[in-house]
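can u pls check wat happens w/ 2-(butylsulfanyl)adenosine
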Amino acid sequence: MTTAAPALSLTDRAAYDHAVEQALAASAAYYQDGNTTLDDASYDALARGIAAYEEAYPDHVRADSPTGKVGGGVAPVGDVAHTVAMLSLDNVFDAEGLTKWDASLARRIDHPVEGGYAVEPKLDGAAMAARYRDGRLVQLVGRGNGTHGEDLSHAIGSIVGLPTQVPGGATVEIRGEVLLTRDQFEKANEIRSAHNAKVFSNPRNGTAGTLRAKDRPYTIETTFFAYGAVALDGVDFLTGTGHEAVMDQVAALGVQTTSATDVGLRVYGTLAQVQARVEEIQHLRAELPFGIDGVVIKADDYTEQRTAGFGTRHPHWAIAYKLPPVEAQTKLLAVEWNVGRTGHIAPRAVLEPVEVDGSTVTYATLHNPAFIRNSGLKVGDTVVLYKAGDIIPRVEAPVVALRTGEETDILLPEACPGCGGDIDKSGERWECAGGASGGCGKLPSLKYAVGRDQLDIDGLGVTYLETLVDAGLVDDAADLFFLSQKQLAEATGSDKRADALLVQLAKAKEQPLNRVFCALGVVRTGRTLSREIARHFGTMDAIRAATPDELAEVNKLPGANAPKIAAHIAALGPVIDKLAKAGVNMVEPSVGDTETGSRPLAGEAVVVTGGMHGALAGRNRNEMNELIERAGGTASGSVSKKTTILVAGEGAGSKLAKAEQLGTRVLTEDEFAALIADYLD
Ligand code: IVH
């Protein structure tokens, strides 16, 4: 089968031997404790290198070669015979590979595919057969070597999507993938931390480990998605004549299928539609609640499947279209500690640069000190790195099997790396004990408050701010409004600059509430949420009076953050009072008397991409978002199914492509400017 990803090139027999041993060791480690020594892409490249060498030198093929064996020949076999062999799938990596597969399928069935192509996600977990007899879930069997699998029935009752009873007394074997969703993965690691067990390095390894474990003092919940069904005990239960129909029958039993997700099964008539759907799924990938490593394409019609038949390892009627890996291995070179605007002290990994999901990654988040402690990470470790789409790259775990003994412990800071003061270690996140306003967060929070998207005080750079802080004149943003011309002139060394700043400060007092609120730098809020909060409550007094439950009603505000936000607003009381005393505006202007419903963007979810010109020239993204919301719409940064308008400026790229794929309405800058003309200043 054609592949786009390069195979490892093996030039002599010694290299071949070494490669076989590496592959066997990697599979063995994976099946032993769920910890791989190689990431997927490296394993694939190695396996394809081995296969290429074996084709060139058939005499050299080793009996223990992983080629041609399900699970690389080392999967736990178990002793439950499979009703029908559980095979794996052949891979392609690009449109060309897909076309070649389609051509070979057409040759096998003597005509182009007529019954359509079923397209569904390739779920990244562990294969499982669930046997229902007379409506009861009686046995779970792992894939094993394809003909025999291990009995995993002890997991019955802990798998979401696999009910223990189904209606109608059905007798049938349902096949699918068991996995840990991202939420389940996080929860699993919390449970494991609490039991002093090693945390799972990623959801797939966690699934493998969880399914095998029998006598744990705790239960870890997993999730099942069906992707097939076969007859059991010769009972004629399945009536559908194709994949989609049978999956509908499975779903009707209450067993979860992929149709419960955004990337669920769809059937297409042409390969071009299949290719477009693959790209669509690739875009949706980062937002899915579980991991996928590809897209599976199957001839939907069972007659066509039967005619196409099976090879030794793969069905000819199905193919896995692999997506670029979102995981990679690289070296942890160092750990940096940075202090954020709110005084949060965060560890950051400095990595040997590595390519993941289309970009080079050099830094990744290490979350918090608890993560470092629980994962046992050391400097010099080979680490598993995860990055998909726009999400911040994160280190998942060290690959302990690749340690050389040269690794060194990560030193946790004794004092705040920003100001040298104490660290508040009471929570999972460490904070500078001085907090945002007192400690080393003071300057960053002042800089943030005067920024273009907040109070927008032009000409008040960090050097002047530092001088004002050092002179003891400014502790928080409110103090700025009480500075005299003389004080400003001293700090900036110029009367003219002081005059200009006074004009800016007077202007800043008139900013709308959303910007004044944003300038406070409340934890877990940024520009978007500040606009939502200001719009929801209308006045600063109403915001201050809001209980956490009332805050949680604000659009886009995660309920779990509401208590923290409320507490911080309360703590900022004196600063807010001072701002009010200075005459700073504390209300969100309503747009005339117009009801939201009659504004031009009422009910529209708008995303802006590319550079703005013409009537919209010079507006940054935040200003565009403010404009959208004044005109009654909601603004968002990324295109999804919910987006109703994409404004495409100069150089619009992937967002435009995605909008076109989703059939979203696309407007040029001029069309958009005309639509909201009444709201342009
Ligand atoms: S069909 C005979 N469909 O990928 C065809 N497999 O490398 C059997 N997988 O062992 C598989 N999502 O564990 C199929 N939608 C999907 C799948 C899927 C994930 C796994 C499965 C299989 C492996 C093949």
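The CA atoms of residues 78 and 150 lie 4 Å apart.
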